[in-house]
Input
Amino acid sequence: MMSRSQPAVHPLEVPPLTDAAENAVPMRVRMKDIQGMPGTPAGLALRVCQFVFAAVSLCVMATTNDFPSVTAFRYPHLSPPLISSILSLNRYLVAAVILQSLWSLSLAIVDVYALLVKRCLRNSRVISLFTMGDGITSTLTFAAACASAGITVLIGNDFNNCAQNHCTRFETATAMAFMSWFAVSPSFFLNFWSLASR
Amino acid sequence: MMSRSQPAVHPLEVPPLTDAAENAVPMRVRMKDIQGMPGTPAGLALRVCQFVFAAVSLCVMATTNDFPSVTAFRYPHLSPPLISSILSLNRYLVAAVILQSLWSLSLAIVDVYALLVKRCLRNSRVISLFTMGDGITSTLTFAAACASAGITVLIGNDFNNCAQNHCTRFETATAMAFMSWFAVSPSFFLNFWSLASR
Output
């Protein structure tokens, strides 16, 4: 495993010339142009955006840990199961943005490393790993954001004094999760594209 | 910067080849093998699955058009804004599965035509159009299904007599929308792959 991935990580080492010579030509034509792939400054910027949005969403949600008591106190007409299911959806959103922020942070670190040592991240296995991870985390984040948006619409319509309570925070967290999903999508598509075009 | 990173991308200096001869071979090898693309029987089966799931979801939702009165009658502790927001989310789900079923039906017809006259749908513009349409409809369907799932969790936890009311229908429609999304995803990825690999 390590010895097979070594030529892609150490490009100045001369690899065996069998199929690398065939792959090099389309790589040179296509790979150079697209910014946003792993190992490029635009890719790092995308990762940082993903991490920042997910982290902001997480912070906003984490600072509303008095949400259960406030909700039950202010809205006695809502039944306890309704409140508990709202809270379980909140927990799902928190879990999704935690996963998203950890993934984006680790890939941002990998990008910084690749930029600093001027190494190439164009190994096929690495890119397929990145693609799968991006696909999974972006799907989870999008699902959590959509479910939260549904709940937010519900809460916002039902509670008239939404401005004074935690509703704004909830909406902010949902919007930040959507922004994080928007930032993951280009990374996913670029990785998938580079995986398919080789 | 660009000239310094060039050796990392090109580990080998390759003699210039005629790249038309290189590109022709992998295209012929790849395009033939992958079932599920437009114009293949598996692609037609995928389209039919998408259409059937979306249509079932639509029918289940459309037959519950007495949902507002039933909900307001059975659950007087829910406020009218809460019920109306549940209904607006239902309407969004209905709109999304209508769009999905129309799109899948039209592409199924195109597939049937291509299979009957043995024509190839490998035009680049056609595939990019298919890819965009698949991406948009699948995102809308997935978002609607997730929002409906959030609402379903909420309703299912809150209402104890969920078995006797329209809750099962609502869950069925949501599940069918998810199934339709699952069936759209392979079409989207295969189209994107064939778009990138040419």
Notes: Confidence is low (pLDDT under 50) at residues 1-31 of chain B.
